[in-house]
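re: ur question from yesterday

yeah so i grabbed the chain u mentioned. its 161 aa long if i counted rite. heres the sequnce exactly as i have it in my notes:
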Amino acid sequence: MSMSATLEDCLRSKGSRYEIVHHPHSNSSIGTAAAAHIPGDRLAKTVLFEDEHGYVAAVLPSTYAVRLSELWARTGRHLMLAREFDLRELFKDCEVGALPPVCTAYGMQTYLDESLASQPDVYFEAGDHEELIHMGTDQFLDLMDQAERARFARRMQALPT
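ran it thru and got these structure tokens back, copy pasting raw so excuse formatting
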């Protein structure tokens, strides 16, 4: 698989400047950052939540975790992680676990954690487990202009080795 058609359309419609970064196959955002030799704070991951009203996407650095209480307060909804089966149906042009952040293009309310706005550049999944999109933060924020910016994530503690 290559870049998702939905993401490609978004990049084209915004006139985004970006580069594609190839990396060895990985199945986690932390693994992707390591495989691509990039700082985890600059790799945006997309986490999908759901409730009886539908889906909500949260976009945050790979080194962060969602504070559900903050997301619940922000949305006024009691969201839970979406099921993998649903991800396959919603993101038909992406591999499971390689969701690009442009979830508004898939018809979903999207929240962007403010911590990404302070990075000099941003990387994110292109729709598969072997390609990332790399762009300047200004380009990324323009691409994500329909997402609501908020603070809902916290840095994960490093695990002892």
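noticed a couple things. Strands lie at 19-22, 43-51, 54-61, 64-66, 80-81, 109-113, 121-125, 131-136, 148-150, 153-155. also The mean pLDDT is 93.
anyway ttyl
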